[in-house]
Amino acid sequence: MSSAKSKPTKKQTSDHSAALSATYKPSAEFSKKARIGSMAAYEKLYKSSIEKPEKFWGSEAKELHWQKPFSKVLEWKCPDAKWFTGGKINVAENCVDRHAKGPRANKAAIIFEGEPGDTRTITYAQLHREVCQFANVLLKRGVKAKDRVLIYMPMIPEAAVAMLACARIGAVHNVVFGGFASEAILDRLEDSGATAIITADGGWRRGKIIPLKPAVDEALKKYSKVKNIFVVNRTGNEVSMKAKRDLWWHEEMASASAKHEPKGFDSEHPLFILYTSGSTGKPKGILHTSGGYLTGTYSTCKYIFDMRDEDVYWCTADVGWITGHSYIVYGPLANGATQVMYEGAPNQPDFGRFWKMIEQHRVSIFYTAPTAIRAFIKAGDEFPEKYDLSSLRLLGSVGEPINPEAWHWYHEKIGGGRCPIVDTWWQTETGAILISPIPGATSCIPGTATRPFFGIDAAILDDAGNECPPNVDGRLVIRKPWPSMTRTIYGDKARFKKTYFSDYPGLYTAGDGARRDKKGNFWIIGRLDDVLNVSGHRLGTAEIESALVAHPAVAEAAVVGRPHDLKGQAVAAFVTLKIGYEASAQLENELRNHVGHVIGAIAKPDDIYFTPGLPKTRSGKIIRRLLKELVTIGTISGNITTLDDITVIDHLKILLKK
Ligand code: PRX
């Protein structure tokens, strides 16, 4: 592996802040081998991809296997996009058969490591076999194209097999993060109308078995449309199995044929629904379709991770999030990559686990989140220093802005100063990365996701819709459609249009604030709506508030985010109690657990403040902005003239000082 360092163009001085804002050019050696090896090459392709996006995307799509070629690249009538119309494609065939039937047949597709240390390597030929078998299991049990299948699994290869088997038969999967609670499962079952569930007895996390099947059973007490539950035996913990409805995965697979001919589906055939938080109401079911989504994830993997047959790629996300869909399952497998999949926690048995795995599996491309990096920094340099990380050639970051301190640590301690870092900006809705360095070309600057990907027309607008001058904050929009964009919010087209396409006619609004510097680099500031980013996970303040008010003691609740060293943002909840209830440490704990029970542990508030009142306008609307200022800077600097009762603020100030 290369030992050439990527060079800071500003002279490294003892001046810490100068070091933090330095620009890092990829090494000549890295650039020489990369698909896009210079800024001039990037600019050239970017320019032509924006002038003729259909040409660029059409040629990317043609690298996939189409059972029937598409006749038109794009039909766009805002907000409805149809990509690659006339084309028939099978997503699973592209991710599996294409490789299993060629020279990659015996290449490792997934190198799995369980938290207890068990390992399994699955070649493309084996993956093909398992996906075909499970597709046959689903068919035998009556699952058809367009049926919705809920997947609630630990990070084990069967999760990928389940997703690919659904894709293969045209069923629409809805993966629910294994950390979510039964009520979250129930909400998603009801919204999607799922008729089958794929789950496991449990998974390993921090040395313990986390049961999964009981949460499914609990949800099904209130939902009756599920005909079958397929249960993977992962941990061996006891689970209750309802006769006929509940089926063991291994028993079903034992008798299933490994022969299955993949049928081509329309390019716009729905592939999956993934729920994500919005600023109001329940989570939104983001719908992605087949040909466009696969083109976007395939192409971004190819250029942004510059994936090669000899690479060992590892994305540490969970399949329950969009990163796991796009950059564990669909993108890397469409590229025929070898990847590592890990079940458990980064600190099990200690904070050296990831680095040990990189050494053992000779990982060359590593993709993780800033929140994890900050936790590693806190744990201490002695962990990565114990291991040989020289196999790494490229690092990636996703989920939130990466703070320069974390960037530098990642660059030096993990990347040995030689690996470019691709800071990738995107969203559940965008399906694939939209803004990121191209590693052989772009000079990285800590804290910026740099420039848009090919075919992506990103801009920053002010409230009036004018483009902001350099270094002025505004709203991030995408002006042209792209293939992996979400097609709708499942069952709610009106909400889809209103959320994403109503701020500026014809343009996609991301919901993020951003600015562009003079060189055209995008600096993402964060969400403009009531969405929190806790450890890279999206949570709606409205969801947490509604969980809190569902507790019998709570009259009213307001939730805001505050800065947090490790998580990026922490959840602060202001709660007023009903008459007859008293604030206590015990109640505080109970409320925390209640939120954990309703949504999942990640949504548990870090701080709970009991207050007799909340700051409201005269018309009764809670002014969250004031609460946010209080928890962020400890005081109120903005306008309070709309406030109904000014004494509430004095009370809150005292409360926060305690
Ligand atoms: O605010 C942005 C932030 O995460 C949001 C999207 O969250 P989600 O749909 O859960 O997808 C996360 C994984 C793609 C965005 O609106 N975000 C994501 N990546 C970055 C980021 N903010 C800054 N820099 C990033 N690289």
What is shown here, in short?
The chain is of the alpha/beta class and 658 residues long. Helix content is 32%, strand content 24%. Adenosine-5'-monophosphate-propyl ester is lined by residues 276, 322-323, 398-401, 423-428, 449, 510-512, 524, 526-527, 533, 538.
Explain what the structure shows.
- By secondary structure, the protein is α/β, with parallel strands linked by helices.
- Among the domains are: 263 residues, ANL, N-terminal domain (Rossmann fold), CATH 3.40.50.12780; 125 residues, 2-Layer Sandwich (GMP Synthetase, Chain A, domain 3).
- It has 21 helices and 32 strands.
- Strands 7-6-19-18-20-21-22 form a seven-stranded mixed β-sheet, with helices on both faces.
- Helix 5 packs across helix 12, helix 6 packs across helix 7 and helix 11 crosses helix 12.
- The termini are far apart.
- Bound molecules: adenosine-5'-monophosphate-propyl ester.
- The site of adenosine-5'-monophosphate-propyl ester has 22 residues, from helix 12, strand 22, strand 26 and strand 27.
